[in-house]
């Protein structure tokens, strides 16, 4: 079962829900992704996501669309939205739930159209993988953007996951890599995914990376727990 995530979505969608997705991270953390949460409606979404959906305009590409909750909401508002995911199971669920336009592809392999809004929600910027890959990732997003387009993304500064000393500094393991780079493995019904890199970005690092790649970066709103919503656009 290579598409662990997609299989879990398919099971939940077909009323075969018996367990959640387990995640094991390089931070020695074990966690779960509750499947019902991936099928939440607009009223059940956190304020940052609701805010992003209200700001979405024009033609929209929902990158890493999962079960399609964001795409369905935008579609119901009458907006032209395309749901993209590299999980075949996720795309099947989106189609069965009524998303009209879907693309089964990784974002880096896709460049057929340009959009007014690119959505990267649920820490979608994590798809970049590592900080060193942000140049390639942001340059690819630029190819998908119309001249007056916008990227709406949320992320978290995970500095809080490291121990703090009496002076307020943080104990980060001596490493050459940025502290927001995490490797995850997903496990579902005894099957494990291949390990994959995921990136959590503090806002200042995102802003610096954006500016260095010709994009303006604006802090739209902040959540309750080191999380934030940002908007990227071409520098004027």
UniProtKB/TrEMBL annotation:
GO biological process: methylation
InterPro entries: Methyltransf_11, SAM-dependent_MTases_sf
Pfam families on file: Methyltransf_11 (PF08241)
TM region(s), chain numbering: none
Gene3D superfamilies recorded: Vaccinia Virus protein VP39 (3.40.50.150)
Swiss-Prot/TrEMBL keywords: Methyltransferase, Transferase
Any one GO MF annotation of this record: S-adenosylmethionine-dependent methyltransferase activity
Keyword Membrane: no
Domain Methyltransferase type: 61-152
Designated name of the protein: Methyltransferase domain-containing protein
Organism: Flagellimonas flava
């Amino acid at each position: 079962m290579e598409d662990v995530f997609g299989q879990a979505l398919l099971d939940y969608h077909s009323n075969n829900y018996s367990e959640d997705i387990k995640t094991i991270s390089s931070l020695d953390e074990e966690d779960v992704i509750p499947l019902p949460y991936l099928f939440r409606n607009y009223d059940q979404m956190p304020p940052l996501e609701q805010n992003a959906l209200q700001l979405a305009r024009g033609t929209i590409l929902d990158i890493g669309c999962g079960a399609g909750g964001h795409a369905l909401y935008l579609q119901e508002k009458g907006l032209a939205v395309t749901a993209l995911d590299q999980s075949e199971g996720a795309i099947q669920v989106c189609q069965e739930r009524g998303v009209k336009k879907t693309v089964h592809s990784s974002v880096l392999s896709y460049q057929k159209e340009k959009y007014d809004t690119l959505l990267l929600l649920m820490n979608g910027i994590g798809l970049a993988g590592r900080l060193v890959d942000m140049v390639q990732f942001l340059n690819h997003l630029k190819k998908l953007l119309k001249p007056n387009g916008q990227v709406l993304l949320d992320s978290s500064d995970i500095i809080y996951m490291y121990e703090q000393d009496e002076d307020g500094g943080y104990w980060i393991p001596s490493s050459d890599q940025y502290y927001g780079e995490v490797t995850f493995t997903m496990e579902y019904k005894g099957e494990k995914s291949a390990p994959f890199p995921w990136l959590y970005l503090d806002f200042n690092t995102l802003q610096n990376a954006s500016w260095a790649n010709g994009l303006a970066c604006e802090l739209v709103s902040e959540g309750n727990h080191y999380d934030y919503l940002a908007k990227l656009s071409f520098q004027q």
